[in-house]
């Protein structure tokens, strides 16, 4: 195993002092452009990785972004393994932060004492709240003087910045795609809390598409399920109990859609031959599944990047980011349809154009 590259090695290779390398690493405006680029080239070539904690001490600032994750109410564990959406968000956030010289720390919403200690420690550059949180968390965050970005929740305070998906448009596009492929008899599998932004937006999008094409909205065909692979499997029986005229199903998340397809398979029902299924998320596994899952891309990576950029921008006093947030502290990520294999034209009705 080779010797770990340190700051002295970089300085020697670049032909500059250790202080100059430190200035470049910490974005101190004391180095001319030519020297700065030379030092950066050496850092990349040698694979030098600055100690983030040491940098924070030198500059008397924190470079750690805390990410608060939700818990599964049934077993009080984080839901990171239930839905790949969360792992993909965290991976993208960590990568974005690392490229900017920051690191991330996962905080569980269920460990209130530990959570409060970290929030009030002064060691965090900012906090991302991923998913739903309780009033205790929000009330605690309102008292801290660091940037807070809330992901996928409705705006409740001017103190926070909010990043979310255009859930209503995504649900509209998914439902419309089923309808345009001849699936006038559909159902919608949804989950989570009914008062959340995601739940309301996706339900409204589903209703809007039915209304546009003159199809009756049937509340009984909106089915609440557990948003997980196992929840999707269990949902197969629920769908089949709704009647044999349903040919198209919109599922609130990809992981549950994949579970549903497995549940149908176990009952000798083929997707898309016998039933068409469309998901929402465009997680990485959706294109590797059989059949490849038709879905709505909510651009998970872009959502994570936006959250991290806001925190770093505020810490760096980026005037552009700060002014944009003052003007509008809600950032909405656009969506698009991804056509793959799990939806085909219906054999029971004419196509709708």
UniProtKB/TrEMBL annotation:
CDD domains membership: HTH_LacI (cd01392), PBP1_LacI_sugar_binding-like (cd06267)
Keyword terms of this UniProt record: DNA-binding, Transcription, Transcription regulation
HTH lacI-type domain mapped to chain residues: 5-59
PROSITE patterns: HTH_LACI_1 (PS00356), HTH_LACI_2 (PS50932)
GO molecular function, a single term: transcription cis-regulatory region binding
Protein origin, superkingdom: Bacteria
InterPro entries from the UniProt entry: HTH_LacI, Lambda_DNA-bd_dom_sf, Peripla_BP/Lac1_sug-bd_dom, Peripla_BP_I
Official protein name in the record: LacI family transcriptional regulator
